[in-house]
Amino acid sequence: MKQRSLILLAVWASLIGIGLAHLRFDVEVLNLLPGNLPSVRGLKLYQERFANANELILTVEAPAAREAEAAAKGLALKLRNASNLVSEVTWQPPWLEHPFSAGNFLGYLWLNQSPAEFSALAARLAPQNAEAVLNDTEERLQSSLSPADFGRLAYDPYQLLQLPGAASPAQLEGGDQLFASPDGTFRLIFIRAATPLPGYRECIKWLKQIDNILAAFKQEPAFASITFGYTGRPAFVAEISSGMEKDVTGSVIGTALLIAALFYVAHRRFKPLLLTLVSLFILLLTTLALGSLLLGTLNVISTGFAAILLGLAVDYALILYQEQVSHQFHSVRELRRSCQAAILFSGATTAGAFLMLNLAHLPGLAQLGTMVALGILLSAVFMLFVFAPLALKMAEARPTKTLQLSPRTPPAPALVLVATLTGFSLLVGILLFAPPQIYGGPDALRPKKSFAYDTLDRIKLRMSRGSEPFWLLAQGKSFLEIAQKFLRAETILAQAKSDRLISDYTLPTPIWPDAEAQKHNKPLAASIISNSAFLHQLATNHGFAPESLGMTMSIFATWNAAASNTGVFLPNDPVGRWSMGKVLATNDFEIVGLGLVHPSSNQGDETWMSRLMDEGLLVGSWDRLGREVLAMVESDLLPMVAAMTLIVIMALAFAFRNFKEIALSIFTLIVAALLLHLGMRVLELDWNLMNLMALPLLIGAGIDYGIHVQLELRKVNGDARAMRGTVGRALFLCAGTTVIGFGSLIWAGNAGLASLGAVCAMGVAICFCVAVYILPLWWNALQVQRA
Q1: Which of 775, 777, 755 is nearest to 766 (CA)?
Q2: Are the beta carbons of 474 and 486 closer than 8 angstroms?
């Protein structure tokens, strides 16, 4: 027997070890949502293809524009020196730091011009016409009153910097607008890690090293007034993952301490208390390990299972220990026989209620429900077959005290009826006057306090147009396919802008690679390059210094590189990589293009968005995401509540077979729901994407308490004090531990998980109070015991 136990223990420990070794945290917020929603698909595609996983966005804020620019430049130089940490730092438009690379990018843009435009260019640069171009440039230099023209033409003798129908790289990319606020006091620095940051531990370590550089930089007197912030994937991963670890450890420790205090107050015994805590710890590790093996990764919501599981699993330990203390069974078989049906039935129904969260189509909540259900079923078996034998040995006989309670006359039925109707009318009036508020924004999916999110909001405030743009994404197998999609999108968006449904839009069409145009233009570019020596000498003869021809020669070098490329040519210089990386992403399977749509205040009509989706484009928006998810949750809520209602009616019919008691149970639940609404209004809590899922769980708890109370009232012939001394005491311990389990989530870092914990804790407490203290009044008033 001992050998078999040791083998089982070794297998159990091995499973826990393997599971914990495979444990991974998923900190991506979008993975909490259904992947079939258009906004989720669009946002995921944007983050996967355009939000660099190893790039940190650093903000620099100063009282004056000159201070902000000096700080950004100085910090960029210091970060570049840390080559072991940073591979690339961009603090201003790349064409300002790499002016000749701008020539390379312009050469690429020329190759994408229409064959007619490029043929005209080739004709202008032909040996017989080139001198006329130089004469025109000299004349414009002498007559122009524009400083911009003078500065450009002095370095552009053949007028290559002005593309037909397009703009220069600086104009195409918005100049310095991507790096500085309009007043110049707020600037951005893009920092790319020197090595990949695949996991949260790598992100945390790298970010701490960056923090050390920032702290040292701020010690310099010239930069003492600078304020730094950062956001981006490394910041989010480090912040959310560390928050998840704190949530798990903090909620587990806090819940365990409160459960221990409640257990000790009830039983005044240390050894069974220690046994209970050890059992809960083993169950927690086992559930975590099995969840890791079954699910692969745990998301930011499902980590809240730990506190919930502790609050629910301890109920079984309390029931078993209380039964042994009360009845002093002589064998484990007798103890199990006394509690087995109740524990297994309760475990099955509770696990079923949590598994219903899978009907919500929210992966975050579905995983939370699965983890809790798995833990509940393990707890029921563990407590019956492992905890029970040990509890049998530790439970001590106690002298029972017979309390002489003077009988109390229940209130008059008429008085109970009047008070009930008055209170119920008041609660209904509050419901009608202040109906539930459902918030559909994405904040419920984010951390409550987040430096990275605060920085992101600060960037939007200081640098955006006042509202976050929609990301317009086109996927395809070829550049031509995506170009055609953007062409159709141009028609739709132009009409939407004309109808004032959007304020503006930006498509990558001016810099998008055109395979057909490049195929035609490359031979012409080669003919121009063959005359490059002649063109260089001719410009020198006209008085242009060799350095003034650097941009022209850079364009020619780009054409020379493109001529040897048989496929679609893409720029590979700093300016080109940076510019194209903002609108184009490629891999071995597909090409993705990115545009921006700026919404207007009139966002009610979204027919333009539907038309874009019909054309095969995706539109990603955090604001629209909240509305989509809320609509889906609301549609899921009805079948979930309907399923729970069916289960409730069947359970009530099986338990009572009495219409009055069935009606009282349902009425108790309705009153509890109205009181919960009142409590949420008082505390200014709104329903959101996460805590709406508390409703099925609260239905199960409310009905369960009502059943226990009414069955006990039958036994004691309606004596409410006697009921509260037996079942009421047990329900108090069970409700108390459940409230503790859910209530500990209030301090969780995730806002949605915290709101779910707050609503569930409040709801369970209200269900307990209504069932134990108010339901007996109704039961006696209706004289159910005589039915």
Answers
A1: 775
A2: yes
Report how far residue 703's alpha carbon sits from residue 652's, in angstroms, rounded to the nearest whole number.
Answer: 8
Closest CA to 453 of 756, 227, 239: 239
CA distance 287 to 665: 34
Provide the residue type at 167 as one letter. Answer: A
**Residue 243, CA distances (Å) to 6, 287, 360, 367 in order:** 37, 20, 25, 18
C-beta separation of 512 from 591 below 8 A: no
Calpha distance 366→358 (Å, rounded): 4
Q: What's the pLDDT tens digit per position in 41-71?
A: 888 888 778 877 788 989 999 999 899 989 9
Whether the Cβ atoms of residue 525 and residue 563 lie closer than 8 Å to each other: yes
Helix (H, G, I), strand (E, B) or coil at 619: strand
pLDDT in tens, 380-404: 888 888 888 887 777 655 544 444 4
Show Cβ contacts of residue 522 under 8 Å, excluding neighbours closer than 6 positions.
Answer: 111, 559, 562, 563, 569
Whether the CB-CB separation of 16 and 289 falls below 8 Å is answered with yes
DSSP 386: I
Best CA proximity match to 622, nearest among 25, 199, 92, 33: 33
Q: Residue 544 has which token pair?
A: 């242009």
- CA–CA gap between residue 752 and residue 693 (Å, rounded): 11
pTM of the shown model: 0.71
Give the DSSP per-residue string, 153-199.
HTT-TT--SS-TTS--HHHHTTGGGGTB-TTSSEEEEEEEESS---S
Among 300, 210, 227, smallest CA distance to 30 is for 300
How deeply is 309 buried, as exposed, middle or buried, from its count of CB atoms within 10 A (0-12, 13-18, 19+)? buried
The span from the CA of 514 to the CA of 247, in Å, is 51
Is residue 306 within 8 Å of 284, Cβ to Cβ? Answer: yes
Task: List all residues 6 or more positions away from 699 whose beta carbon is below 8 Å from its beta carbon.
Answer: 641, 644, 645, 648, 669
Q: Is 369 exposed, middle or buried (0-12, 13-18, 19+ CB in 10 A)?
A: buried
What string of H, E and C letters represents the secondary structure of 439-485?
Answer: CCCHHHHCECCCHHHHHHHHHHHHHCCCCCCEEEEEEECCHHHHHHH
Q: How many CA atoms lie within 13 A of 310 on its CB side?
A: 34
Please answer whether residues 301 and 373 qualify as being in contact, where contact means their C-beta atoms are separated by less than 8 angstroms.
no
Q: How far is the C-alpha of 233 from the C-alpha of 54, rounded, in Å?
A: 7
3-class state of residue 585 by DSSP:
strand
Tokens of 256: 């365990």
Q: 3-state class of 604 per DSSP?
A: coil
Q: Using alpha carbons only, what angle is made at residue 741 by residues 675 and 634, rounded to the nearest 5 degrees?
A: 55
Residue 51 is given by DSSP the state S
Tens digit of pLDDT for each residue in 530-569? 888 898 888 888 888 887 888 888 888 889 888 888 888 9
The helix (run of H) or strand (run of E) holding residue 505 is strand 502-506
Enter the tokens of residue 753: 């998980």
pLDDT value at residue 491: 92
Tens digit of pLDDT for each residue in 101-145?
677 888 899 999 989 999 999 998 998 998 898 888 888 877 766
CB 321, CB 395: distance < 8 Å: yes
Give 531's DSSP letter: T
- Kindly state the helix (H) or strand (E) to which residue 425 belongs, with its residue range: helix 413-433
Dist CA 263 CA 276 (whole Å): 9
